[in-house]
Amino acid sequence: MNLQGMLRCRMGWVQAEGPSHDVVLASRVRLARNLATAQFPGRAKAAALKAVREQVFAAARQTCLKGAAYLELDKLDAVDLRFLAERHLISPALAGQPGLGGAVVDPRECLNLMINEEDHLRLFALTPGLDLRRAARAAGGLEDELSRGLDFAFRRDWGYLTACPTNLGTGMRASVLVHLVGLGLGGYINKLLESLPRAGLITRGLYGEGTKVMGDCFQISNATGLGRTEDELAAAVESAVGVLVQREQEARRKLAAGPGRARLEDTVYRAIGALTGARLLSFEESCHHLSALRLGLSLGWEVPGDFGTVNELMIMTQSAHLVMLAGKPLVGDDQAVLRASVVRRRLAGK
Amino acid sequence: MICTSCKKTEAVVFIKHIVNNQVSQAALCSSCAAKAHVPLNPVNPMAVFLQLAAKAGAPRARVPAAARCPGCGTTWTDFRETGRLGCARCYDHFAALLRPLIPRVHAGAYVHRGKSPRIPPPAD
Q1: In sequence order, which residues have a C-beta less than 8 Å from that of residue A191 and are 6 or more positions away?
Q2: With a cut of 0.90, is the ipTM above it?
Q3: How many beta-carbon pairs under 8 angstroms link A with B?
Q4: pTM score, whole prediction
Q5: What is the bridge-based pairing of β-strands A69-72 and A24-33?
Q6: Record: contact A156-B88, CB cut-off 8 A
Q7: Which residues of A touch B108 (CB under 8 A)?
């Protein structure tokens, strides 16, 4: 466990600020890039992958990331790797098979690099709330700085070249993490999610591709990155998500004002009862109850905590985070006990 | 085909994931798909792309399926199996096969309109 110091870092992107933060936890722009003269990670040999990592690190040290943490993933243990994935700094896939991957993490975790996953380089910019255009500008700025030291694979017709042709063009994935508890409780969620592909959007679970939906949180992003500029892509996703935000806020108000109010209050306050009183909490259970607590907060009800605390708890209650906090492996009920304790203390303001 | 999740009902949606060159597949019935929030008509660009790529290995292709990219040795067959190209030169080597497929995966788009790599200033 080499990354315990990161437990003290305040993740800038989970702060409850930014537009529509009652529904949108964070916005993220990812740019995928490959070096022009190296084989892509799926094909390259170890020596070449190490060389790519070194080149990217060297270029990053000449940018605004010079004070960041530079991590060689093969030197980290399984807990560290899961910890990075839990904080959305590397993908679950890379955490499972780190190979000769790398990560560069800035102190506020709002600008990060992931090296040698599917592509040589994935660059991420995160902002709180719904603000994809700001995230796109930050990502573009960092990419400009990196390109002074790195020669990216590019064709004039197909743009930035990626290992998977579905990421061609801008190499950009503009995504938001949204909390759709109102639409879920109102029974509208499936219909809504089925309509998103018509707008060129895709939906994924909490940790991205192939992952489960938890705590009523979804990742929504553009499906393709070719044929539009970076600004157009960010604006399109932001506009579509803006409509979704309005529908979600409407659904919440309707639930609170309608004949189901008593049931809704019961759901929220039972969740608070569990969060503030339970001695054992699984991660799924805590996500479920935190979702209800977020709903209570957004409706202005008298509930403990605030949006920032709830957002942080969604990160802090994950398994690798708890192992790091304990400083030792957690067996049997230990993890559930520690999770319940962390939640009780944070909601009591400790 | 029976749903791989509940193993009881007929599957209606088929998903193929490729992560780190490992291919995994699932077939879900409508009920399990709904529980997993998987749309019944998923737009999964990679799945569409692979189906089209399989058809594109047809006799009229100018590059034989076994021909290797000079940059990395990847063949079109390798690409069809993994969904991944091996290096930047693959895009040149397989351009004739990729050209008709790309617009179909990118909602009709066939040309890049975004930023380009920085052009270094001329040497003084």
Answers
A1: none
A2: no
A3: 151
A4: 0.86
A5: unpaired
A6: no
A7: 227
